[in-house]
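Structure first, sequence second, as always.
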């Protein structure tokens, strides 16, 4: 959080405000949403940050929203009038534009919060454009947030408040302020939340969230929450009022529940972002439909060689196929595994890539599940959904074999390719996706149609690694509440396992990696114990099942692709019921081994592909859960590149040791 100074044009005074920016703001192509926090009597721009900011900022980081904290009055000038009273003058601007002496020259808090500060944030910080603003506050600030939002609901996405003064024209604080600043209590009705709501005569927000402590010493005489509740009920305005037993008027109360409010606003701001994105994501593909497209692609000409930027031709889709415009592609170790020559099915020349966010450009004959303009995530694990497919019909697996044989041969289901180089020679497909190209062709059964509200440079993560890690926990192993878990390998998949285990209610999560620098992120996502095998005497499995635990962990996950680690993961699982899941892909020809006694004594060895998710059915649900704030994924994107030609740079980043996912935006 950093302080900033703004010269308030309407009064000629300097105003200081605090500003928290999420890490995503630095690389965001779109406007970052902003939450305005208005503080209460006697406060300035620092109170919230010092007393409640830590929890608020951590949650705002997850939500990807900024928080701005303006001062409560003008104060940084000797000419600013003041009185010897905590509830009037400096520290008590009441978020109105004063019309009376001696305040009318300087006290313009309403214009500051609703006009000058938003304009500055938009122009100087790229925050809150297109109405991406929400507002909240405490006490006098709660009054300010409610009245400002209700006076101009089209300018605010959502509103909430802590211990707000909801009917100031009827209580001492408000009467004193309105007489001094506006000349009369009656003039204050234009800044009274209860009066404004009654005047509106209808619901103006989908919900208004209010927190109120039952032990608040000001509840009866100054806040009168019940009056606002009655007004809201009378006009049909949905309002959630949480009466918190035992809480008073202090910042301890705010700190206890501020995360709920940031989540409340985050959900609504994300939805607004999504709708704006949907409105601006229309493409006219009329000129390309049914015709070959020439575009840029990164072609893998041979193993262990850098990708080559080429202009290729992408044929129109045939029956049962979909041609898509690739908007963003995330690098996965499976891509580099093939590029490095370790994949026995690797064919060259080919176009790699399988974690992408795309827009449907055109469809072939018989395609019904998607239409041009739809947003899709290509899935290397298809789902034909046919009643005759025992794999699609079974809840036990997601391994639909409908196009497995041709996919492994680097061709489309009709055994031909859709890619050609400048000489007309064929280029192989990869995993049925080939998304390191500005356009690609997919089988319809490999297209998961998702909400257009989701940014495609984030949606791409659900095409492989993140889904695989979450699904290994939720689907393959079905980790229960209070389980113990060990995760070997803290790349994107391993961290997704930790995140999924935390969400499933695991009480102990042991993170294992040779790079101790990865432990901080693992801790943020829910890991409780951290082990670097280099710091342990003897086999890591004996340290986990013997030192850290008596009998081992309930569930273990290998996310390394190393067969020795797979064995260690199994052997640290709990005697009698331990379950170990193999996620990492081992190099060609490698085999796993253990003593049969490990299985005889009750351990289970499992494997998972795409986390057991049925692609077309489940990926849209994962995306929606991300939009709803349930699955946070921003932390996986550690590197961003623009242009398909930057793919080699993204590969270097992936190998750097500090990269989870490098995303290339086309």
């Amino acid at each position: 959080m950093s302080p900033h100074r703004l010269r308030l044009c309407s009064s000629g005074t300097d105003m200081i405000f605090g500003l928290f920016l999420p890490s995503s703001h630095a690389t965001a192509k779109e406007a970052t949403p902003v939450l305005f926090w208005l503080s209460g009597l006697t406060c300035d721009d620092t109170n919230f940050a010092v007393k409640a900011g830590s929890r608020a900022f951590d949650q705002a980081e997850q939500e990807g929203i900024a928080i701005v904290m303006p001062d409560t009055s003008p104060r940084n000038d000797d000419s600013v009038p003041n009185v010897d009273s905590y509830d009037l003058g400096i520290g008590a601007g009441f978020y109105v534009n004063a019309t009376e002496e001696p305040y009318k020259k300087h006290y313009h808090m309403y214009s500051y919060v609703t006009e000058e500060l938003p304009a500055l944030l938009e122009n100087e910080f790229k925050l809150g454009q297109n109405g991406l603003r929400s507002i909240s506050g405490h006490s006098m600030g709660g009054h300010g947030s409610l009245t400002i939002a209700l006076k101009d609901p089209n300018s605010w996405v959502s509103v909430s408040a802590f211990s707000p003064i909801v009917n100031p024209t009827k209580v001492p604080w408000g009467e004193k302020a309105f007489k001094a600043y506006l000349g009369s209590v009656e003039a204050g009705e234009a800044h009274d939340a209860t009066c404004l709501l009654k005047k509106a005569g209808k619901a103006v927000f989908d919900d208004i969230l209010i927190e109120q402590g039952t032990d608040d010493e000001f509840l009866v005489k100054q806040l009168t929450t019940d009056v606002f509740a009655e007004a809201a009920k009378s006009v049909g305005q949905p309002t959630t009022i949480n009466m918190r037993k035992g809480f008073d008027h202090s910042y301890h109360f705010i700190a206890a529940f501020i995360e709920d409010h940031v989540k409340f606003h985050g959900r609504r701001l994300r939805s607004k972002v999504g709708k704006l994105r949907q409105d601006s994501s229309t493409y006219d593909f009329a000129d390309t439909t049914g015709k070959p497209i020439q575009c840029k692609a990164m072609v893998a000409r041979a193993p262990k060689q850098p990708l080559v930027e080429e202009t290729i031709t992408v044929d129109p889709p045939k029956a049962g196929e979909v041609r898509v415009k690739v908007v963003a592609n995330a690098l996965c170790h499976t891509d580099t595994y093939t590029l490095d020559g370790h994949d026995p099915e690797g064919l060259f020349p080919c176009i790699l890539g399988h974690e992408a966010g795309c827009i449907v450009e055109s469809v072939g004959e018989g395609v019904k599940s998607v239409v041009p303009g739809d947003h899709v995530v290509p899935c290397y694990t298809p789902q034909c959904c046919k009643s005759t497919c025992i794999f699609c019909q079974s809840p036990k697996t997601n391994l639909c074999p409908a196009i497995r044989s041709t996919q492994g041969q680097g061709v489309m289901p009709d055994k031909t390719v859709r890619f050609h180089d400048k000489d007309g020679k064929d280029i192989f497909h990869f995993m049925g996706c080939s998304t390191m190209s500005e356009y690609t062709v997919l089988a319809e059964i490999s297209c998961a149609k998702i909400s257009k509200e989701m940014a495609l440079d984030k949606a791409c993560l659900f095409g492989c690694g993140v889904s695989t890690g979450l699904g290994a926990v939720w689907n393959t192993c079905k980790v229960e509440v209070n389980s113990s878990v060990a995760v070997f390998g803290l790349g994107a998949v391993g961290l997704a396992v930790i995140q999924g285990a935390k969400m499933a209610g695991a009480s102990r999560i042991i993170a294992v990696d040779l790079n101790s620098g990865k432990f901080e992120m693992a801790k943020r996502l829910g890991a409780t114990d951290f082990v670097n095998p280099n710091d342990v005497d003897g086999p890591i499995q004996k340290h986990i099942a013997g030192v850290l635990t008596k009998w081992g962990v309930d569930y273990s996950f290998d996310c390394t692709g190393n067969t020795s680690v797979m064995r260690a993961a199994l052997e640290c699982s709990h005697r009698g019921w331990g379950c170990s899941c193999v996620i990492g892909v081992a190099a060609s020809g490698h085999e796993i081994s253990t003593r049969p006694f490990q299985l005889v004594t009750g351990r289970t060895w499992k494997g998972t592909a795409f986390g057991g998710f049925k692609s077309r059915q489940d990926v849209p649900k994962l995306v929606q859960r991300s939009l709803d704030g349930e699955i946070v994924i921003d932390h996986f994107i550690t590197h961003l590149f623009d242009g398909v030609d930057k793919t080699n740079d993204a590969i270097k980043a992936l190998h750097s040791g500090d990269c989870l996912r490098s995303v290339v935006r086309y």
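Margin note: The longest helix spans residues 251-280.
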